[in-house]
Amino acid sequence: MPTWFTPAAVVCGLMFAISPVLIANAPYESTMGLVQKIFYVHLPSAWMFLLGAIVCGIASVRFLFRGDPRHDRLAWAAAELVVVFGVITLITGPLWARKAWGVWWQWDVRLTSSLMGWMVAVAYLLLRKYGGPGSDKLAAGLALFGMANVPFVYISVNYWRTIHPTTSVVPTLPTSFGLPLWFSAVTFFLLFLLLLRVRVRLEEQRASLDALYLSADA
Amino acid sequence: MMKRALVAVVMMWSLGAIGGGGDGGGPDSLRASGASASLAGTVRGSGPSSQHWLVGSRSDPTLAEAEGPPLQRPPLHSAVRATLHAQQPEQTPQPQQQEEFVPIDELPPQDQLPAAPLLVTAYAVVVLALFAYVVSVARRLGAVQRDLDRLQSDLKRTGRT
To answer: Which one, out of A60, A102, B103, B140, has a CA that is 20 to 30 A from the CA of A175?
Structure first.
């Protein structure tokens, strides 16, 4: 593991311990009240979900054009994080919506495209696990669709009629709401980096194991 | 002859039953109709001038009191009234004006939706999902590391590097 890993893990743990205090001290939103505090985990996890899809897509493009297995390992690790943070986003969102909108789910463009992005990542992982030889290239092609979906997810709320809040909410947040949000976002970003590094390490170890088996057979 | 008399008796009975407005326990389905009652309530709520005899029903106790003693209506009149009643389009009741604050715990269970369980569930999902993923990666990493160590020791033992 790199030298920055342990200090970053300690900082991330401390930030995870502090963020509930900041979130608890944040004011209640006027119309949604207590349930709006889901926002402080829903939005950062959604950002990590989209970031993971971008990382997976870029690494896949580089793998397709250069054939470097390191990029393939990075793409695989990022795809797993897309699924993890996607699960968090797609569960916390409906829990918030049930109170704020009165429904668990709405088939509007933001929610539907997010679900599609998550399903692309699940398909990527299934392809890697059960696809057999050559599935790495096929999965890399699939990851491109996942990455292409990201800007669509992001701007969808500004161009289509939807009940989901638009992207203008975050830049206009007062400090009392913004501070816990950005603190939580940095915490999630740090966690994303740590998990990505650990997951890449797992693939590196697997590659070393495969190399050892090959040398033992030779 | 008998047959003709029987038909006449049946017709008289049915007309009399309809004309009785349900007092006699005849086939007055409108009396039990919830639509009729709600319709009466709707029109009654919209102002005294809009009270129409068509929507008045003696099944409504308030309206029955306002009307006073029941009138003797001819059977044909009641039959027309019943027909018009049936043809009246169903209207949605107007929401009642709020006259008092009601504590949320006095609402029916389907109208109560506290936020705290949703919030706690959301945070629990975050913690559990991340914890489960960290445990999963740690176990996989441990398994691969054990395989690596075992294979390296085997290779050393056999003299290969």
So the answer is: A102
CB distance B113–A99 less than 8 Å?
Answer: yes
Q: What end-to-end distance do the CA atoms of chain A give, in Å? A: 30
Interface-testing mutation among A88, A101, A184, with chain B (most B C-beta atoms within 10 A): A88
Alpha-carbon span A39 to A188, nearest angstrom: 13
Question: Do residues A53 and A146 make contact, with C-beta atoms less than 8 angstroms apart?
Answer: yes
Set of chain A residues whose Cβ sits within 8 Å of the Cβ of B142: none
| CB-CB contact of A52 with A192 (8 Å) | yes
Q: Would you kindly state where each structural domain of chain B is located, as residue ranges?
A: 2-93, 105-161
Section B4-33 average pLDDT: 48
Q: Does A144 touch chain B (CB under 8 A)?
A: no
One DSSP character per residue, A159-170 reads HS--SS--TTTT
Determine whether the interchain pair B144/A41 forms a contact, defined as Cβ–Cβ distance below 8 Å: no
- Domain contains A120: yes
Residues of chain A with pLDDT under 70: 218
Residue A2 lies in a domain: no
Q: What is the tens place of the pLDDT at every residue in A2-57?
A: 889 999 999 999 999 999 999 999 999 888 888 899 999 999 999 999 999 999 99
Residues of A whose CB is below 8 A from B124: none
Domain range for A100 is: 38-217
Query: Rounded to two decimals, what is the model's pTM?
Result: 0.70
Please report residues of A whose CB lies closer than 8 A to that of B128. none
Number of independent structural domains in chain A: 1
**φ and ψ at A118, to 5 degrees?**
-65, -40
| Chain A nearest-CA residue for B114 | A99
Please check whether residue A1 lies inside any domain of the structure. no
- Decide if A21 touches B, using CB distance below 8 A: no
Q: Is residue A148 part of a domain?
A: yes
> In chain B, what residues touch A215 (CB-CB under 8 Å)?
155, 160
Give tens-digit pLDDT for B119-137.
999 999 999 999 999 999 9
Burial B119-155 (b: 16+ CB within 10 A, else e): beebbebbeebbeebeeebeeebeebeebeeebeeee
Chain A, nearest residue to B113 by Cα = A99
Pull the structure tokens for residue A28: 């209640």
